[in-house]
Write a structure and sequence with these properties.
flat; Alpha-Beta Plaits; three-stranded antiparallel sheet; four-stranded antiparallel sheet; 55% helix; 16 helices; single chain; alpha+beta
Length: 381
Amino acid sequence: MATLEQLVELDKLNECTVECTKQSRWKESTQRYFADMLTRNIQLQDDVLHHRYKVSPTIDFTINERGHIRNIEAPVVRDRDLQKSMMKSVLTPSLRPYLIYDNYASLKQRGTAFARKRFEIMLRRFIRKNGTDGYILLGDIAKYFESISHETLKQIIAPRLVNEPQEVIDLVHYMIDTSSHSDYGLNLGSEAPQIFAVYYMNPIDIYIKVVRGVKFYGHYMDDFFSLATTKEELAELLDDIKGKAKDIHLSINSKKTHIVKLSHGFTFLQVRYTITKTGKILKRPSRSKIVRERRRLKAFRRMYDKGQMTRNDIFNCYQSWRGSLIREHNACRDIVTSMDALYQSLFPVRQKREKPSRKRMVKAINHEAETEDLEYCLTLK
């Protein structure tokens, strides 16, 4: 439990300012805030304690992520500072203990790598117990962030905030209401909406894990999976998930939700899994991931020709992608070889001129002098 005074302690706000701007110190707006950080945080503290705090207009822009246009609403440093303090003092301690272990997104010591590792552990356990004749349910929530209801979210998190002061609860509700321009949706550029989105599906997770006792289940934000021995069992589970999702104003994306036989192969979190007859799990990166990297390298070449990127920056970007590919898919040497060939064709290695040694220079000078002496002697004859 944290009071409003503890939430906006000056030392805590200063610490949160440093943490939430680690990756944006180069920005002019961040540098201006740091130049007057103490005064600005004192003003923020005073506004919160006297209930005058108002969210500043966000910085809106769009990004293209794997062909999907996403609208980002990034808060200014002042609002990020308060959200960071709220996350550390109230939201994370209150909500995280009630999440299932197999909820992987936007949490410390979680993430994509942890989700893949945990998924593969479940897959191996299932194969050892039931063989390779099972099925997998791969599901997706349609427009997850845009469909989150503010009132439903407040009701879901209310039991976890009962010990918090009413002033803190009101501030949490204000953050939820100002996270979009309507009664539905959370913006993608803030930290607090991430934990809200992670916890929003917790009633469905508890129903599946506790009430139904499904052992092989997990979810990463809006993607979820489950393993079973029969297709009918997964179809029944999917119907229950649809009903529970409808109760919290969510819907299943029918185009991305399907039940697949394990032996036919499937894709989860950008990894293509193939199960052999002996139960061995083969992993390869999805085709879209390779195509996207090839296009990115060609775009880097065009930017390099225009002087927009340096050769060193391009090399670091490619080595980072290459290292993650080798770490996650150490058996895909053919893909690494083909990508290296593409990189070398786009950015050929420059042949370094060998710097002559001192001994070679002296030898060349002596040879030149001897040649001149010989030519002079011939002219005298």
